[in-house]
Amino acid sequence: MDHVFIEGLEIEALIGIYDWERRIRQPLVFDIEMAFDNRIPAASDAIGDTLNYKAVSKRVVQYVSESDFGLVETLAERVAAIILEEFGVQRVRLKLSKPGAVRGARAVGVMIERTAATL
Ligand SMILES: Nc1nc2c(c(=O)[nH]1)N=C([C@H](O)[C@@H](O)CO)CN2
What we know:
By secondary structure, the chain is an alpha+beta fold. It contains three helices and five strands; from the N terminus they run E-E-H-H-E-H-E-E. It has a single domain, classed as GTP cyclohydrolase I, C-terminal domain/NADPH-dependent 7-cyano-7-deazaguanine reductase, N-terminal domain (GTP Cyclohydrolase I, domain 2, 2-Layer Sandwich), CATH 3.30.1130. A five-stranded mixed sheet has the order 3-1-2-4-5. Strand 4 and strand 5 form a beta hairpin. It starts with a strand and ends with a strand. GO terms for molecular function: dihydroneopterin aldolase activity.
């Protein structure tokens, strides 16, 4: 299966379980891999046939910038659901990194893979 990806998408958000984290915005980094059949846009050369990574990025930036969660797990789940539901993606892999959250670690966070519900 082909993929469309977004790597290193940096967004500041209100995120964290500690009191001090409720008063600041922290940088988060998203790496997103979306299953998509790229043969169709490759044949037509039409942006309308693509899974448009710019449109997905814009939506993720808008949602994450306005979000307010304690856990990175919650935010990752919500972003994955938006990608599946609003962009018709069948499978998404998402890595959410919180750089600098743990002293000595470059980043911590979660990686999830979700599939669209079938009726
Ligand atoms: N699995 C998780 N562990 C932790 C989280 C989290 O969201 N998921 N969050 C924190 C704190 O907010 C931390 O990032 C502050 O340094 C701790 N562990």
